[in-house]
Amino acid sequence: MSSKKQISVGNIKIGGGAAISVQTMTNTKTEDINATLDQIRLAAEMGCDLIRVSCPTPESTVAIKKIVQNSSLPIIADIHFNYKRAIEAIEAGVACVRINPGNTPDNGIKEIVKAAKENNVAIRIGINSGSIEKNILDKYGEPSIEAIVESAVSNCHKLEDLGFFSFKVSVKSSDVITTIKSYRKLSKLIDYPLHIGITESGTFFPGSIKSAIGIGSLLADGIGDTIRVSLSDDIREEVRVGRQILKSLGVLKNTINVVSCPTCSRTLIDVIGISKALNDYCDSVKKDLKISILGCVVNGIGEAKNADIGIFGFKSGIAKLYVKGKEIEELKESDIFGIVSKLITEL
User: Fold this and answer.
1) CA-CA distance, 161 to 278, in Å (whole number)?
2) Which residues of 174-189 are buried (b: 16+ CB within 10 A; e: fewer)?
3) Integer Rg of the chain from CA
4) Rounded distance, CA 324 to CA 337, Å?
5) What percent of the chain has a predicted confidence (pLDDT) above 70?
6) Are 132 and 143 in contact (CB under 8 A)?
């Protein structure tokens, strides 16, 4: 059920069978150009595809022109309340603007669409349960699934009536079930690309779990074309968790999957320490590889034979190394990380 329609946000294709992209959002003051560009660079190094930058002030849209010019990632301007900021951001060269119909008047949406058309810029209709239009909220009495979806469909029609079709849609809530059910309902009613995520999901631990459940459930249903994990944390963690969700579902290419056991009293090597080190190392490596790190021979041999690089505890502090299903040698525990990281670069 992934969208059949496809749009472009800079050089990134969204929908229509394109790879699912990972987004994040800067949390610097946009007017601080260097700090904002530093965050964008760090996000890009983590494998981020798109990045959103808030534009609440005239000074921020002045700054965004230089940010766009120096960013390696397509920039999405985040707009609330004042539609003029969207027009300024479009004229500054952003690839997309996110608008919130709950705080953007119809005349403002018309002006934004006009500017987007003239500059070949995409739009995201961003519906949040916390800021639905008053008339729809009055109709339903609460930000229900029906209210959220009606807002989304209504605003899709507004853009279509203006002759604009290069847009994607999100219907986010901080409640996981509301989010899942809203996207499922919406996906049956429209065929535009869907940006998915759990909004305001919280700090790293609870937010990662909420996001994995929500985003993962939708992607497993075939719903979703681009994702953002929203965490009260370093934006690099948003990218890391987002990529891990895609990796776990087998839809992220050029990534290394590290399989490791939970350990028990049979464990003969430091599985936890080695696995953590390898996961950190592999975050920035773009290769399709499977690595298994297991503590003993129970499942170790089978997993090793089915991995590109397999390690399992054989004796206390000693592991066996398999490469492409073949036994190669025995390794001291202290040598495992160095040898495996070297093999990763060679394979």
Assistant:
1) 52
2) bbbebbbbbbbbbbee
3) 23
4) 18
5) 99
6) yes
pLDDT digits (tens, 9 = 90+) for 193-207: 999 999 999 999 999
pLDDT digits (tens, 9 = 90+) for 290-344: 999 999 999 999 999 999 999 999 999 999 999 999 999 999 999 999 999 999 9
Contact, 72 vs 40, CB < 8 A? Answer: yes
Q: What distance in Å separates the CA atoms of residue 90 and residue 121, rounded to the nearest whole number?
A: 7
Tokens 């989010």: give the residue. 179
Report the Cα–Cα distance between both ends of the chain, in Å, rounded. Answer: 36
pTM above 0.70, yes or no: yes
For residues 9 and 96, the answer to whether their CB atoms sit within 8 Å is yes
Residue that has been written with the tokens 């093999």 in this structure: 343
Do 97 and 113 form a contact (C-beta atoms < 8 A)?
no
Taking each helix axis as running N to C, give the angle between helix 83-92 and helix 106-119, from 0 to 180 degrees, rounded to the nearest 10: 10
**3-class secondary structure for 292-338?**
EEECCHHHHHHHHHCCCEEEEEEECCEEEEEECCEEEEEEEHHHHHH
Which residue matches tokens 């999100």? Answer: 170
Q: Phi and psi of 242, rounded to 5°?
A: -60, -45
Half-sphere exposure of 273 (CA within 13 A, CB side): 10
CA 209 to each of CA 137, 203, 231, 244, 246: distance values in angstroms, whole numbers, following the listed order: 29, 10, 11, 12, 14
Q: What is the 3-state secondary structure (H, E, C) of 23-60?
A: EEECCCCCCCHHHHHHHHHHHHHCCCCEEEEECCCHHH
Return the H-helix or E-strand segment holding 95.
Answer: none
Task: Looking at the chain, list the stretches that DSSP marks H as alpha helix, in order from N- to C-terminal side.
Answer: 33-45, 58-70, 83-92, 106-119, 134-140, 145-161, 176-187, 204-220, 235-248, 271-282, 297-305, 336-346
